Structure to design on (210 residues):
């Protein structure tokens, strides 16, 4: 049960972000369709918990991040804005990229910490994973800056940049000791730090806009 509750908590930030971004950009939310998507989130989260005994792979981590970070929020977007211009997809890509990357990095941290017996035989692969883990967080902040410049997110979303120190401090701690479960949890902390700083920033923008 604890695992199921944890997975549900992991899905909450993308739902909130999608609804806030819709409210900021379109000023109207289709609550019926959005509630249906939220229910699908919870069902999928419950179903995913049955596969927790399976070994994490990089491919499964990619699918996990894309499904919960992009695909389901895309349905929420589309249900509220049925036109599909290029700006629509750019909005979705930039605005949700921080969540997608953070979900993937958490999965990657689990994979690395679970493979400590292979750290000597696959040092090149470990080095590659750690470089990817460290560098792609920077992409999330550039994505937010781009979304703000294009007007997809309010200027108050710059609040996420106040999380830079905490996020990169956690990155350094994980890279220094990547085979400990306790340091793998730091990637989960980064996920919530990034997600909720972005949520608070968008919410402030909506309040100011109103």
């Amino acid at each position: 049960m604890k695992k199921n509750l944890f997975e549900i908590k992991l899905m909450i930030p993308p739902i909130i972000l999608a609804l806030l971004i819709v409210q900021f950009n379109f000023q109207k939310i289709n609550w019926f369709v959005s509630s249906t998507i939220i229910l699908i989130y919870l069902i999928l989260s419950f179903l995913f918990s049955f596969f927790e005994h399976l070994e994490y792979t990089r491919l499964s981590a990619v699918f996990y991040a894309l499904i919960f970070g992009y695909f389901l929020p895309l349905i929420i977007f589309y249900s509220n804005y049925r036109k599909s211009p290029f700006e629509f997809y750019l909005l979705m890509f930039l605005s949700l990229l921080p969540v997608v990357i953070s979900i993937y990095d958490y999965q990657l941290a689990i994979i690395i910490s679970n493979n400590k017996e292979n750290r000597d035989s696959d040092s090149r692969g470990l080095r590659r994973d750690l470089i990817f883990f460290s560098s792609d967080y920077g992409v999330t902040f550039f994505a937010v800056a781009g979304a703000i410049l294009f007007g997809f997110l309010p200027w108050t979303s710059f609040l996420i940049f106040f999380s830079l120190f905490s996020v990169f401090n956690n990155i350094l701690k994980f890279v220094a000791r990547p085979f400990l479960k306790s340091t793998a949890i730091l990637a989960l902390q980064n996920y919530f730090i990034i997600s909720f700083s972005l949520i608070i920033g968008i919410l402030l923008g909506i309040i100011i806009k109103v």
Summary: Helices lie at 2-26, 31-48, 58-80, 86-114, 123-149, 164-176, 181-209. Residues 108 and 129 are 8 Å apart (CA to CA).
